[in-house]
Design a protein that fits this description.
Length: 109
């Protein structure tokens, strides 16, 4: 899964399936701020009940172009998109069936 996220969505996952993003806009010395994404096996008990699920939302620069590239690579891309005041949204599915939301923010966001 780490390779899939790295190769298809550009998420710089380590071989162990983790990545940490540093908050550059709001970081201070006291509160540097990070967000970490970590992949776990489907049968893990670490994150709680088996029915618990999350959806990853990734901010992208050019949704239409990215979705075309993903399709060309054989990634399942949902045909539906949503254009709202917040920007353009689209979705793809990773190899384990997890839906990923791709968001191209509206101007000024």
């Amino acid at each position: 899964m780490a390779a899939w996220y790295r190769d298809n969505l550009g998420v710089p996952m380590s071989e162990k399936g983790t990545v940490t993003f540093h908050w550059l806009d709001t970081a201070t010395t006291e509160y540097p701020g990070t967000t970490t994404m970590a992949l776990f096996a489907q049968d893990t008990e670490y994150i709680g009940e088996p029915h618990q699920r999350t959806m990853l939302n990734l901010r992208v620069d050019d949704l239409v172009s990215l979705m075309a590239k993903l399709k060309a690579r054989g990634v399942e891309v949902l045909a539906e998109t949503e254009d709202s005041e917040f920007g353009l949204f689209g979705w793809c599915v990773d190899p384990e069936g997890n839906r990923i939301e791709l968001w191209e923010p509206a101007e000024g966001m």
